[in-house]
């Protein structure tokens, strides 16, 4: 009676942390040691015979495929260890994609058994008689058990314990959509039911214990404190009545404490930091994805009580799976597609635990890898183990090691493992989605690791169920634990570890600016071939993100195809609203030293003497308050360092400069309707009225686009050479037209050469300079038109501008905008309290 009441209270979130241990201890240990050898042998022969019977039928393909899939699933559910041995010892395929591990329904059963016995050097002869098969199979299984003991000897010497999660494998439309928010804007990926579990190795077999279980909820992202006694994880207790929040378990007492709160916000992927803070991803940033309609997760900090929560990643779209390196840096995956295609841009980034020093780590300017995630450092090395996956697919794929010292892009620093091989630098959206599948590696050393893995993978497809394995780089493996009903994920070794290097912080939240220093803009490939002295200024632009997606346009270019929600222009125009912050001088020696607003996503454009773009940054950078960040040059290789003995630059000699205004309008969100249309109204529409001249530059918002839910002017559509994709379809611009030529928002991920596109390549600017039609624009007006082109031709400067929204659309957008503003107000209070706490410590 007492037990049932406790479970009921826990389900409703009413039980205090002191009652949770009672629930955690309810599950008894269960051993994973297999025992039913006779049943397995008989079932294998039965299934093999049934498959052969189906093969004899006419038109048997679909029935055969279904039977083989069902057989794989049944055998892995009922005899996981035995069947995994059988699969890993197979060697009867044409190539790796043919499935040498799983395609064992060929020839005779005795032949398949003989192949496996040969692999283990068993010389016993086997024929098709039941007695021979029984004896040979028993010999094979005993040899497999001896091999298991040899493989696991070192690993099991100290009876290691492993914590892991059980939850159903999600299948989002994009790998990072896993927040499952209760008030999701659109796509909500959530399957109820799961547990937080532990195994202890008793010899070569695991004994499992359930720490927490919830039939309506899900546990995810376990992270062990350096003391080995506290476990951080996320827990969502209900699909619609709760969201993922951070919890901490005391592993000695099993007491559980909730750290973060707030319905409608998901807090996931938390990790302990050396300074006793916690870094995690959260949807509290309040933005929606540019190329879809779901919410975004960015990185936040709080202390171990959940206090002083504040945003440190101000990113366009998702950041995922942060991990801590031994030197104190954090490496994470950042979806990064400002002014470029969204498919190929999920590289690894790095930063300090306080959010400073955000910079690329691997794959920033390359097609390959499509996505890297689930990254962890290999102990005692500077290498990381990670999963190579695609864009439009779940979070699993192929396993490899990245050595950033060997290279930073494409496959330069990549080596796949299990088995060891050098991958090709391929351009594949859903990369790695074939044959066996890997997720959540936990490296033990340079050759051994724990891994969530399925040998069946795409041989049988979804639903995909993973087990926890010991594995080595050559692909030798032993299944430690699996569950016939649910996937086992995210293994971590339960043992104390050395606290990583504690990096001191210079962040000062009483300030609101940071400083950039550039040594020589001409260093690196960004301005390769550009003569020194060409670049006169840097333009600093802020990217502003949508609160929700209403309407859509479509674009396509070298970087793939995509929609843009709450679009700021026609298809292929800029992804986001652009805010012009200001400009700073670049000195003749290529140096610059300037202040910028902190905690805002900024990107830079290198300008010539007419204020036109020579090169633009198709990413962004964010400084924390009081941060100083320096770089060698423009897209210099990250394995380079400043030249030793370099003389003091002109910018360093002059000192830090405040930004100057771009023009008379100063800092503002750029709007074509407010800044460019008045130029045409003053100078051009007397001729370009659609009558005297067929090209209209008139500014009435009379073109209503039902799909994008925007209104357009004749002039904007004419200059972008836009055409509708079809009847009642959205308008798509031609970024490569010589008249107005801009970098497509779907451009390739790799570094573009100087003068690739923009105002310097647009005939319109030449016409305006020449006084087209006898009209003479001022240099300031021409610079403003150039600015519009170089910002990728946005039409609006606010997501509500020029909309054709229904009342429902407006209410939808306003709801999430209000939610974002509320979260920002709460963060400001958190920062105020944080500043106060620091001041109190200083006084003591």
UniProtKB/TrEMBL annotation:
<dbReference type="GO" id="GO:0009055">
    <property type="term" value="F:electron transfer activity"/>
</dbReference>
<keyword id="KW-0479">Metal-binding</keyword>
<dbReference type="GO" id="GO:0020037">
    <property type="term" value="F:heme binding"/>
</dbReference>
<dbReference type="InterPro" id="IPR011042">
    <property type="entry name" value="6-blade_b-propeller_TolB-like"/>
</dbReference>
<dbReference type="GO" id="GO:0046872">
    <property type="term" value="F:metal ion binding"/>
</dbReference>
<dbReference type="InterPro" id="IPR040698">
    <property type="entry name" value="HZS_alpha_mid"/>
</dbReference>
<feature type="domain" description="Cytochrome c">
    <location>
        <begin position="661"/>
        <end position="839"/>
    </location>
</feature>
<feature type="signal peptide">
    <location>
        <begin position="1"/>
        <end position="27"/>
    </location>
</feature>
<dbReference type="InterPro" id="IPR009056">
    <property type="entry name" value="Cyt_c-like_dom"/>
</dbReference>
<dbReference type="InterPro" id="IPR036280">
    <property type="entry name" value="Multihaem_cyt_sf"/>
</dbReference>
<keyword id="KW-0732">Signal</keyword>
<dbReference type="Pfam" id="PF18582">
    <property type="entry name" value="HZS_alpha"/>
</dbReference>
<keyword id="KW-0408">Iron</keyword>
<keyword id="KW-0349">Heme</keyword>
<protein>
    <recommendedName>
        <fullName>Cytochrome c domain-containing protein</fullName>
    </recommendedName>
</protein>
């Amino acid at each position: 009676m007492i037990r049932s009441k406790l479970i009921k209270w826990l389900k409703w979130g009413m039980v205090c942390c002191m009652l949770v241990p009672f629930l955690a201890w309810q599950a008894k240990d269960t051993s994973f040691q297999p025992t039913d050898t006779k049943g397995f042998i008989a079932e294998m022969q039965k299934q093999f015979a049934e498959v052969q019977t189906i093969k004899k039928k006419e038109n048997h393909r679909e029935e055969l495929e279904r039977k083989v899939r069902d057989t794989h699933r049944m055998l892995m559910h009922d005899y996981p260890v035995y069947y995994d041995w059988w699969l890993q010892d197979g060697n009867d395929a044409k190539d790796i994609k043919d499935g040498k591990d799983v395609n064992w329904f060929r020839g005779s059963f005795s032949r398949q058994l003989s192949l496996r016995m040969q692999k283990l050097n068993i010389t016993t002869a086997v024929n098709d008689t039941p007695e021979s098969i029984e004896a040979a199979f028993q010999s094979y299984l005993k040899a497999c058990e001896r091999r298991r003991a040899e493989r696991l000897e070192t690993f099991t010497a100290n009876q290691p314990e492993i914590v892991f999660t059980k939850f159903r494998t999600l299948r989002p439309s994009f790998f990072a959509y896993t927040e499952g928010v209760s008030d999701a804007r659109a796509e909500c990926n959530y399957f109820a039911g799961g547990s937080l579990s532990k195994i202890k190795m008793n010899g070569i077999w695991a004994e499992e214990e359930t720490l927490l279980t919830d039939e309506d909820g899900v546990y995810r992202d376990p992270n062990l404190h350096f003391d080995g006694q506290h476990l951080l994880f996320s827990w969502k207790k209900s699909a619609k009545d709760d969201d993922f929040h951070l919890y901490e378990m005391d592993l000695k007492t099993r007491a559980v404490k909730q750290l973060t709160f707030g319905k409608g916000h998901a807090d996931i992927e938390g990790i302990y930091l050396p300074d006793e803070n916690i870094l995690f991803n959260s949807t509290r940033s309040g933005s929606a994805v540019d190329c879809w309609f779901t919410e975004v997760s960015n990185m936040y900090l709080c202390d171990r009580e959940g206090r002083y929560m504040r945003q440190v990643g101000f990113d366009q779209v998702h950041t995922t799976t942060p991990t801590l390196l031994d030197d104190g840096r954090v490496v994470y995956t950042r979806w990064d597609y400002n002014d470029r295609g969204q498919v190929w841009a999920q590289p690894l980034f790095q930063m300090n635990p306080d959010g400073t020093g955000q910079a690329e780590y691997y794959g920033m300017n390359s097609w390959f890898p499509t996505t890297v995630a689930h990254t962890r450092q290999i102990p005692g090395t500077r290498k990381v183990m990670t999963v190579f996956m695609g864009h439009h697919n779940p979070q699993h794929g192929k396993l490899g090691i990245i050595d950033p010292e060997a290279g930073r892009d494409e496959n330069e620093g990549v080596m796949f493992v299990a088995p060891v091989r050098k991958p090709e630098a391929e351009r594949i959206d859903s990369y790695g989605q074939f044959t066996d599948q890997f997720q959540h590696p936990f490296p033990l050393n340079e050759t051994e690791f724990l891994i969530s893995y399925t040998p069946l993978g795409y041989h049988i497809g979804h639903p995909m169920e993973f087990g926890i394995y010991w594995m080595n780089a050559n692909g030798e493996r032993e299944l430690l634990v699996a569950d016939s009903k649910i996937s086992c994920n995210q293994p971590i070794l339960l043992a104390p570890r050395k606290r990583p290097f504690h990096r001191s912080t210079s962040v000062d939240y009483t300030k609101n600016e940071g400083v950039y220093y550039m040594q020589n803009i001409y260093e690196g490939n960004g301005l390769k071939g550009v003569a020194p002295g060409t670049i006169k200024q840097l333009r600093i632009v802020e990217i502003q993100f949508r609160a929700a997606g209403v309407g859509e346009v479509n674009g396509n270019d070298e970087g793939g195809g995509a929609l843009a929600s709450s679009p700021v222009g026609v298809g292929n125009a800029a992804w986001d609203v652009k805010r012009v912050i200001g400009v700073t001088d670049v000195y003749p020696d290529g140096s610059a030293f300037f202040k910028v607003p902190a905690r805002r996503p900024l990107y830079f454009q290198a300008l010539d003497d007419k204020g036109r773009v020579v090169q633009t940054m198709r990413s962004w950078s964010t400084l924390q308050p009081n941060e100083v960040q320096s770089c060698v040059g423009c897209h210099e290789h990250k394995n380079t360092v400043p030249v030793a003995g370099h003389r003091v630059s002109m910018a360093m000699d002059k000192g830090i400069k405040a930004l100057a205004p771009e023009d008379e309008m100063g800092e503002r969100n750029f709007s074509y309707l407010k800044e460019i249309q008045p130029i045409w109204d003053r100078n051009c529409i007397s001729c370009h009225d659609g009558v005297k001249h067929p090209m209209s530059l008139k500014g009435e918002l009379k073109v209503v686009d039902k799909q994008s839910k925007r209104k357009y002017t004749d002039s904007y559509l004419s200059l972008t050479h836009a055409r509708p994709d079809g009847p009642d379809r959205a308008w798509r611009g031609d970024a490569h037209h010589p008249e107005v030529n801009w970098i497509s928002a779907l451009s390739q991920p790799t570094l573009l050469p100087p003068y690739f596109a923009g105002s310097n390549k647009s005939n319109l600017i030449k016409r305006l300079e020449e006084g087209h039609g006898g009209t003479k624009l001022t240099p300031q007006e021409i610079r403003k038109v150039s600015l519009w082109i170089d910002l990728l031709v946005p039409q609006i400067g606010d997501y509500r501008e020029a909309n054709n929204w229904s009342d429902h659309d407006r209410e939808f957008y306003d709801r999430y905008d209000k939610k974002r503003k509320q979260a920002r107000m709460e963060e400001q209070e958190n920062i105020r309290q944080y500043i106060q706490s620091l001041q109190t410590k200083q006084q003591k």
